[in-house]
Amino acid sequence: MKIIALSNQKGGVAKTTTCLNLAAYAAKKHKVLVIDCDKQANLTKNLGIESPQTTINDLFLKRPFDILNVRKNLDLIPSSIDFAGIDLVIQGVLARETILKKAIRQFKTKYDYIFLDCPPDMNLVTVNALTASDYVIVPVQATQFSMDGVSIMVEFINGIRESQLNPNLTLLGILITHFDPRLKISKSIEKDFKVNEWDAALFKTRIRKNTAIENSQHKDNRMTIFEYDNRSSGAMDYASLGEEVLRKIKKFN
Ligand SMILES: Nc1ncnc2c1ncn2[C@@H]1O[C@H](COP(=O)(O)OP(=O)(O)O)[C@@H](O)[C@H]1O
Ligand SMILES: [Mg+2]
Q1: How far is the centre of ligand 1, averaged over its atoms, from the C-alpha of 57 (Å)?
Q2: Distance separating alpha carbons of residues 201 and 216, to the nearest angstrom
Q3: Is the CB of 206 under 6 A from ligand 1?
Q4: pLDDT for the residue 192
Q5: Relative to the CA of 13, which ligand 1 atom is closest?
Q6: C-alpha to C-alpha distance for 176 and 204, rounded to whole angstroms
Q7: CA angle 145, 150, 155 (to 5 degrees)
Q8: How confident is the model at residue 45 (pLDDT cuts 50, 70, 90)?
Q9: Exposure check for the chain: N or C terminus, fewer CB within 10 A?
Q10: CA 103, CA 123: separation in Å to the nearest integer?
């Protein structure tokens, strides 16, 4: 069983899209759980759940909560706007960084992979997610790329490791999303990565800009990219990423 977080303090970089489609890809052959750790609940809605009776908020408050089966081999712990403000609530709780890690222990043997969709913050919820994870994937948007943003995220991950909260946390890779091969900026990003010696961390797969991805998440559809259009470039890219991620994890073990 492996736990993988999708994290970046920036919004709109495709954390949720990647969590959804990577989990859907892995669920073709494995038992998978996704946990929506963002109060915006985009992952929850994209999986077709509108008003869940219990959410991750209950998990954090140590109340009973449901795990929903949303597809074949794919379960979800949903989120909702109720989760807003949880940071303040758990501020005073003892061992407040390990709430999620401990909760996952109860059911982790039921799954092969657990994917955590993080909020666009470096708050206590993100600290909980990274403390509970074996690996972290950092999606970055090619069109508004900033090396500073990536550095901040990499330092944050190093901080979690060095603080002893999670000495085993591994950066599985940095993923370029919203990629447009025609744009010059996409080439300059590759150069930046070489300069920073992060080449090894960069996934070979890039997720190209693709309207099918946006359409798949439209409120009239709410599908994974494989359900919406299995022949789209988005479906091809996420299948390629899925293979690369599972291969990389195997190599580490
Ligand atoms: N490859 C892509 N091509 C086109 N649109 C995309 C792509 N990936 C994500 N999007 C869209 O970009 C927006 C932000 O993506 P999202 O996954 O919600 O980011 P985050 O979770 O990091 O905030 C969403 O509207 C999503 O549909
Ligand atoms: Mg999101």
Answers
A1: 24
A2: 29
A3: no
A4: 78
A5: 22
A6: 9
A7: 170
A8: very high
A9: C
A10: 19
Residues 179-188: tens digit of each pLDDT:
988 877 667 7
Ligand nearest to the CA of 7: 1
- The structural domain count of the chain equals 1
Q: What percent of the chain has pLDDT over 70?
A: 99
**CA atoms of 139 and 150, how far apart (whole Å):** 9
Decide if pLDDT at 56 tops 80: yes
Under 8 Å between Cβ of 54 and 36: no
- How confident is the model over 186-209, as pLDDT tens digits? 677 777 777 777 777 899 999 999
Q: Is the CB of 45 under 6 A from ligand 1?
A: no
The tokens for 163 are 């603080």
- 111-154 tens-digit pLDDT: 999 999 999 999 999 999 999 999 999 999 887 777 778 889 99
Give the domain range for residue 234: 2-252
Let me know: does 245 contact 22? Beta carbons within 8 Å: yes
Secondary structure E strands in the chain: 2-6, 32-36, 68-71, 74-77, 113-117, 135-141, 170-177
Cβ of 39 below 6 Å from ligand 1: no
Could you tell me the CATH number of the domain that includes residue 126?
3.40.50.300
Cβ count within 10 A of residue 184: 8
